[in-house]
Design brief:
Elements (H helix, E strand, L loop, with lengths): L1 H24 L5 E2 L2 E2 L5 E2 L10 E5 L6 E4 L5 E6 L6 E7 L1 E2 L16 E3 L6 E2 L3 E8 L12 E4 L10 E6 L10 E3 L9 E6 H8 L11 E7 L2 E9 L5 E3 L5 E5 L4 E6 L10 E8 L14 E3 L11 E3 L5 H47 L2 H10 L8 E2 L2 H7 L8 E4 L3 E7 L5 E7 L4 H16 L8 E5 L6 E5 L6 H6 L9 H21 L4 E2 L8 E3 L5 E3 L6 E2 L6 E2 L12 H6 L1 E2 L1 H17 L15 H10 L3 H4 L2 H6 L2 H14 L10 H15 L5
Parallel strand pairs: 3-4, 24-28
Antiparallel strand pairs: 1-2, 4-5, 5-6, 6-7, 7-16, 8-15, 9-14, 10-16, 11-13, 11-15, 12-13, 17-21, 18-19, 19-20, 20-21, 22-23, 25-26, 26-27, 27-29, 28-29, 30-33, 31-32, 34-35
Helix pairs in contact: 4-6, 8-10, 8-15, 10-14, 14-15
């Protein structure tokens, strides 16, 4: 019996408790119609964060509607699936001053949407549509608008709609819009969600005129990262079930936490999402107090701010010691790596220098210099760094000229001396001897009309020679590119011929072993500051023993200056240089290039053209006008006959360079040195 009484009493207690739990369960409704409501939004007292998030569930129409109490009771159509901080609402049209025959206005609103004082702002995902405009693109204040014609403009004046992005001049802090902000040549305007525009309006623009309301997006916050706050550190507001809470932080930020899931309300802490209220007027680009910008934010998440946990003094000291020790260790390691790298680089440079020295014929040069020690002046060996600095790392602006043997750069040495640096082309083993030959030959020559070799550098990938700098360019340039400012007079031509012949006579006769140049031409004759001739480019030169000719398997020289006998037999003699000099004499007399620019094939060779004129007694017809004007007839004839003798097809019948220099010197003696 006692047991039965106990069971009845327990049943009564359970029946009394059940309605209490049911009423508590529905104190904060989570739905209104088909709209789900979640904190900070709420229906009823104590269910929302503050009045700005209050939702009214209106059943007056027979169908429940969720309304935002703080914004003209706008109807909530739902919350965004992509962002919990965006709410979808239905907003009325904005009535404008325009009128039209094809638009109705019975459902047009008063033209004000005011979000000021609320936690909401217009989302950038909205678009603005002005309808019933008088002419295309009338809404010029908006910029980037798309005009859509909805009727025949010849019948009705208001036939254009303008689809625009949200213009900054329409919204004040993105919270306020009224008809005074919109161009007045349209009937009405809408703030519309972009997806609705794409799926509804653009499909049938005519439907918009009958719409009393259209969907739009309102933002109430922006996620900045994760938060973790103690209950008592800030004011906290929760729904009645204590399943969701907001803690107010500094600078317009809040911490939204919930029970369950990844975040919790346990142990007196609120752990959840850090949110910045976008309408609070605060700078959402900065983090609140106690948080710092995340140096490595997740590119796929809004993880811009990170909680800063203050460590104890002991932990800070330990961290400082570890940091300093690590920094010092890293510094020592970097110094060691730098020193090792420098050591390896120096060893590699030394090895490369030795390899290049050997590759560029350094051993061969040493051998030849030692075997001809009495005849060769000591040349300076420049370092790679010296010449790189002198030529500004071989800057293209420093190029003086380019030829078959390499490129010549203008340089300035550390002592201020101006030099010409010849950077030879990449050489193989067959060309090393030719390069070393130039060094040895120029080391033997000491003549005022021959370019002086100052030194060389063999520790680079390509061999380098350093010459004295000859400032006034080549004879070729002055003969074939004459200007009125500096014409080449007959006296200058005769003097240049005498100086070049003297230098060649010295090379052929005065040196211990005859030296053949093998490439005499006007572009290899340089002019110094006093326009004295200097013979250059000895890259193809050879030293020849007395009574010995040089037989080669490859003909070297320049077309137009090349001895035809050498071309046929590949046998180079001193008379081959005489032939090339004869071509230079003809250039001085006629002012024409060795290969003439003419259509007649037989007249293209300057030598053939000149010899034919001599044989037909037409010499004065082919001479340059300045030569005819300034030169004496007997001088001109003497030089012309000498040139003809130099150009004899049979080498043995040509004069020697010594005879040529003597005959030209006789002309100077006859006219007097003062005239030169």
């Amino acid at each position: 019996m006692a047991m039965h009484l106990c069971l009845v009493l327990l049943q009564i207690i359970v029946l009394q408790l059940r309605p209490i739990r049911a009423s508590e369960k529905f104190l904060c409704p989570t739905e209104c119609g088909n709209v789900s409501i979640s904190y900070p939004f709420g229906i009823g007292k104590g269910c929302h964060f503050d009045k700005g998030y209050e939702v009214i569930c209106d059943n007056s129409s027979g169908s429940p509607k969720a309304l935002l109490a703080s914004v003209n009771k706008l109807e909530i159509s739902g919350f965004s699936l992509f962002s919990m901080f965006t709410v979808e609402v239905n907003v009325p049209a904005i009535s404008l001053n325009g009128g039209g025959k094809n638009r109705t206005s019975n459902n047009i609103g008063k033209g004000v949407i005011d979000l000021s004082g609320t936690p909401f702002t217009f989302s950038s995902g909205n678009r603005f549509i002005a309808i019933g405009c008088d002419r295309e693109n009338d809404s010029s204040d908006f910029g980037g608008c798309l005009s859509i014609c909805t009727c025949d403009p010849t019948l009705y004046p208001a036939c254009y709609d303008s689809l625009c992005p949200l213009p900054p001049q329409v919204f004040i802090a993105q919270t306020y819009i009224d008809s005074g902000n919109i161009p007045q040549k349209c009937q009405s305007g809408f703030v519309v969600e972009e997806d609705w525009v794409n799926h509804n309006y653009l499909t049938n623009p005519h439907d918009l005129k009958d719409q009393p309301q259209v969907p739009a997006m309102l933002n109430w916050g922006e996620k900045k990262g994760s938060c973790d706050e103690e209950y008592n550190s800030h004011s906290i507001s929760c729904n009645l079930q204590k399943t969701r809470c907001l803690t107010q932080l500094s600078s317009g930020h809040v911490c939204l936490c919930s029970s369950g899931g990844n975040y919790s309300l346990e142990k007196g802490r609120c752990s959840g999402w850090l949110i910045c209220n976008t309408s609070s007027g605060y700078n959402c680009s900065k983090c609140p107090d106690g948080y710092a910008s995340n140096p490595l934010p997740d590119p796929f998440a809004d993880d811009l701010c990170k909680k800063v946990f203050i460590k104890s003094r002991k932990s800070r000291v330990k961290a400082i010691i570890i940091g300093c020790g690590s920094g010092l260790g890293l510094f020592i390691l970097l110094i060691g790596i730098w020193g090792l790298r420098k050591f390896v680089k120096r060893r590699r440079e030394i090895k490369l220098k030795r390899m290049f020295f050997k590759k560029n014929g350094g051993l061969l040069l040493q051998q030849q210099l030692s075997s001809n020690e009495g005849n060769i002046e000591k040349t300076k060996l420049f370092t790679k760094m010296d010449l790189e600095k002198a030529t500004d790392n071989y800057n293209a602006n420093r190029i003086l000229g380019q030829g078959g043997q390499g490129t010549v750069y203008k340089g300035m040495l550390a002592d201020g001396g101006i030099v010409a640096v010849k950077k030879s082309k990449l050489v193989d083993e067959s060309n090393v001897e030719q390069f070393i030959n130039e060094v040895v030959i120029l080391s033997q020559i000491n003549h005022r009309n021959v370019v002086k070799l100052l030194g060389s550098c063999l520790e680079t990938e390509v061999p380098l020679l350093v010459y004295e700098f000859i400032p006034n360019g080549t004879l070729y340039h002055y003969l074939h590119n004459q200007t009125e400012e500096f014409p080449i007079t007959w006296e200058m031509r005769l003097r240049i011929a005498i100086e070049v012949s003297g230098a060649m006579s010295y090379l052929h006769s005065a040196t211990s072993i005859p030296i053949y140049h093998r490439d005499i031409k006007s572009s290899n004759i340089l002019l110094d500051d006093k326009y004295r001739a200097k013979v250059s480019d000895f890259g193809a030169s050879r030293t020849i023993k007395v009574d010995q000719t040089h037989l080669t398997t490859r003909v070297q020289g320049t077309f137009g200056y090349l001895d035809p006998e050498y071309f046929r037999s590949s046998q180079f003699t001193e008379k081959s240089d005489v032939y090339s000099f004869g071509v230079v004499l003809v250039e001085l007399l006629t002012g024409q290039k060795p290969i003439r620019s003419t259509d007649a094939e037989e007249d293209r060779s300057l030598v053939g053209f000149f010899l034919q004129a001599m044989n037909e007694d037409r010499l004065f017809e082919v001479l340059e006008a300045r030569v005819l004007k300034e030169g004496k007839e007997e001088e001109i004839i003497t030089v012309a006959i000498l040139a003809k003798r130099c150009l004899n097809m049979i080498g043995k019948k040509r004069p020697s360079m010594k005879e040529v220099a003597f005959e030209l010197g006789g002309i100077r003696a006859s006219i007097g040195s003062s005239s030169l």
